[in-house]
Amino acid sequence: MSTDKAEKDEKDGPEFRPYHHPAAGWGAAKSVTRFMAREGALPLDGPRAIMKMNHEKSGFDCPGCAWPDDTKGLHLDICENGIKHVTWEMTRKRVGREFFAAHSVTELAGWSDFDLENQGRLTEPMVYDPATDHYVPIGWQDAFELVGSALRALDDPNGAAFYTSGRLGNEATFLYQLMARELGTNNLPDCSNMCHEASGRAMQASLGTGKGTVDLKDWETADALFILGVNAASNAPRMLTALAEAYDRGAQIVHVNPLVEAAATRTIIPHDFKDMATFHATRTSTLNLQVRIGGDMALLRGIAKAVLERSVTEPRALDREFIDRHTTGFDEYRAVCEATPWEELERQSGLSRDDILGAARVYGEADRSIISWCLGLTQHEHGVDTVREIVNVLLLRGNLGREGAGPSPVRGHSNVQGNRTCGIDHRPGEEFLERLAEACGIDPPRAHGLDTVATIRAMHEGAVTVFVGMGGNFAMAAPDTPYTCAALEKCELTVQVSTKLNRSHLVHGRRALILPCLGRTEKDHQRKGVQSTSVEDSMSMVHLSVGMKRPASPHLLSEPAIVAGMARAALPDSATPWEWYVEDYDRIRDTMARALDGFEDFNRRVRLPLGFRIKQPARELVFRTPSGRAEFSGAPLPDVVPAAGTLALGTMRSHDQWNTTIYSDNDRYRGIKNLRTLVFMNRADMRERGIADMGPVDITSTAKDGSRRHLTGYLAVPYDIPRGCAAGYMPEMNVLCALGDYSTQSDQPIMKHVKVTIGPAA
Fold this sequence. Notes:
Blueprint: E1 15-16, E2 23-24, H1 25-38, H2 45-52, H3 80-89, E3 94-95, H4 97-102, H5 105-108, H6 113-117, E4 121-122, E5 126-129, E6 134-137, H7 140-152, E7 160-164, H8 170-183, H9 197-207, H10 216-219, E8 224-228, H11 232-235, H12 239-248, E9 252-256, E10 266-268, H13 273-278, E11 282-283, E12 287-289, H14 296-311, H15 320-326, E13 327-328, H16 330-339, H17 342-349, H18 353-365, E14 369-373, H19 375-378, H20 383-396, E15 406-409, H21 416-421, H22 430-440, H23 452-461, E16 466-470, H24 474-477, H25 481-489, E17 493-498, E18 511-516, E19 524-526, E20 529-531, E21 533-536, E22 541-545, H26 559-570, H27 578-583, H28 585-595, H29 602-605, E23 612-613, E24 630-631, E25 647-652, E26 657-658, E27 661-662, E28 672-673, E29 678-681, H30 683-688, E30 696-702, E31 708-718, E32 725-729, E33 754-760
Helix pairs in contact: 1-3, 7-26, 8-26, 9-20, 14-17, 14-18, 14-20, 22-28, 23-25
């Protein structure tokens, strides 16, 4: 096992010390330096990557978050977690046939998730040998034939599922969905099913688009920014620059979160050398509201109610011209707001009426407002209703279709939005399928496929027997970890396309393949030369990414090449020119230009400075809804107040992790060292239960069906969090979220509102 300590002194025990320093700044610089030194990225690779990351034309896109690149030519458009993500990929450690010969799968299953990934980059394709319980080498063509034969042997193409992680570039994404649909299935589950599915469905219903309407220039001109359910300092750290600049120009910044995260206090932007030299911090908020878990919708409705009440004496509080010309359902929505008592809004939000009115005052006095949100709003039963409530609030004052205003979801993974745009959708629309059929000469299936939750259940029941994972760590990212792992183990074949070893390679089907691919930092050499790939950010900008580094192994293939190899083996008589596509990715883009709305003239426009923005009809006040207008919604307010004796627990990432990748057992911004098996609790809730500070506790969740799940021996950390609420880290706490506990609105796992009881350890 690895001897690395993951920035942890093994002689030290867990520690909690509240963090009072600015976000980013010297704390980030110190952490990055230590991390690069640990990974052997100093003095050459790390600094060189920093100078190439997020640079237009000649740079590679950060494989971390999907925050847009700077539009003003910034040369250090980087952040702490982005550098760590890139350094983790560029490690000089290698996992080859010698490693797998020395360690059985059973042995590796006992290793920590950190130690598995910390072994380094995978170097060649491997196949599981059940006779020895080891992975052994396999040639690429034999690996492709193993996949192809398994897919050809299916009685029904819906017996396969093709999962996508957000790291996949647009070109590989397009080929991947094309392969699945030519095979005859829409079983295309993806990480979006677990994070922003609610956002897409809500905005599609309200505005006729599944995406936000704002861009980075809007963030630079807004009078008010509302940031809901976002831990920006860890999940989208480059947002800190936008927040600091907004504060400096006098904008109001309202953060809404059960925890007051570091991004909601102050920051020192690392590329601001003067501020770094003088330790000058800039505030990143003008108001912090600690809403109870799940109470955001009540706050939003309270803001709307206040605006409507104000409009009785101040007609300009509403934009009646906008409402009359561009919306429908306003009168019904107003009646719902008027019928909702202030006492209920206070109870459900966990805020006082004065707090809600303070937020409403900020909104009402701003000419241009942006509302931004992340998983804190979506991973709930009522996630779709909450996002639609955001749109309701924006519509009241005409905050749509003009500069500095609109909805702005924060996608937390690079190109997760591009995946959906380029066809990863288990519920494709008829218009998309018709264009795909015409451009590619196939007859795609029309029936909806399986999303993530449905795929897990289908594997468990034996209906899906072939699982292909294109990136990610499915076993750990999904809910109900034991159930998910058992489902994977029931498959006939599991295929994982990966850069590093992870838990999903050890939880496998009867047959299993590990197919190693190039990372985004690496040069992609094909027959027509070094290739570029494209990605789409959170605000619909599409731009190119070009790797800079020699591949970790000469045996690695690019993601498009791996998809094409599997496709040809599965569809030997296919007329699709898979091999021709891989020779030159411009050819893929030419086909994408014919198949995808908004990608016309793709190859030319993607090479423009900063790339191009996919057209957003709703920004132009063109609404592709049944009514042809923006639609108000009047959903009932959900009851999110925990029952007596229970708590609402939300899972989240620590600062020193990226999705399921754990860089260390520290969480600097929350004051945690050497600990991940913890639960943050309100001190009064701890006293009520007889729990000591940092005392061991047992946690039990109760699912919708009454079943229970347990975690034992966790430590309780007293924290500034509303009473009745608790929080802890994923993926460890995913075990508490039952597979059946998913939203009936979005089919998303309810990972932000797990019903738990917590008591002193038995």
